[in-house]
Amino acid sequence: MDVVDKTTRSRMMAGIRSKDTRPEIALRRELHSRGLRYRLHGKDLPGKPDLVLARYKAVILVHGCFWHRHQDCRYASTPSTRPEFWQAKFERNISRDAEVRDQLGQAGWRVATVWECALRKPQQVIRSADILETWLASGEPELTIGEEKVAVRPSPFPGIGS
């Protein structure tokens, strides 16, 4: 049972953005101030990555912890109403994210995923930008930045990141 009527819920859901979110804009501003240039929402790439840094053959995906199910994150709660619906939706999102990362990697792109929880405070945005700058220079194929967690993975694709 929902606590608000259908019209109100519809209006609330319509207000949820898929691009140009606050965390994404904060990261974009910080990276731009450091002289990094990028294209937004690359329509020619799988998944339309949030930031495309062609110079580095790298993309940055800014993921919301709730929608993309950041594992062990306090912001990745599951609504108590219609749990089957939400679980199916979240599973589709996770599956699509993995497929997009795979397609980008096979096409020779390096992929960084920055979780929303790592961009909540100004100092977190600065720290994430520091990590991203180091990653871009390193040539590593994959990076994940979450609240207090950073993971760099070796490439499963021959010739990328070696």
Automatic annotation (TrEMBL):
Organism: Roseibium aestuarii
CDD domains: Vsr
Listed name of the protein: Very short patch repair endonuclease
Molecular function GO labels: endonuclease activity
Entries under SUPFAM superfamilies matching the protein: Restriction endonuclease-like (SSF52980)
Keyword Calcium: no
NCBIfam families found in the cross-reference section: vsr
InterPro entries xref list: DNA_mismatch_endonuc_vsr, Restrct_endonuc-II-like
Pfam families in UniProt: Vsr
Family: Belongs to the Vsr family.
Keywords linked to the UniProt accession: DNA damage, DNA repair, Endonuclease, Hydrolase, Nuclease
Keyword DNA repair on entry: yes
